[in-house]
Amino acid sequence: MQPKSQAQEIRQSMKTISNPEVYEDEERGTEYYQSQDKQYTDHVKAELEQVISHLEQAITYRYKNSHLMLNNGNKAGTGELESLKDNLQKIHAVWDESTEIYGM
Prior knowledge:
Elements: H1 6-18, H2 20-24, H3 30-69, H4 79-93, H5 95-98
Helix pairs in contact: 3-4
């Protein structure tokens, strides 16, 4: 038995990830595919919420310990982290509208 080429391994992993039999079955109807799409986008939204939460924790940690992070007496700032959090919250605020299905 010959070892798999890198391309074969990638194809196999993509088949596993994408679950191709779902996309080949046209008898399931549009409701099924819309439901699958909703599950995927809801999952990503939940992950985005976790990222925002983790970023808030990182901001709090840096704020509380900023005086310990630099040796020259300066404090580590949280401004850029706050800006990132604000951008993620803006994305989250329009998530449902942005992920709606529309015809092309």
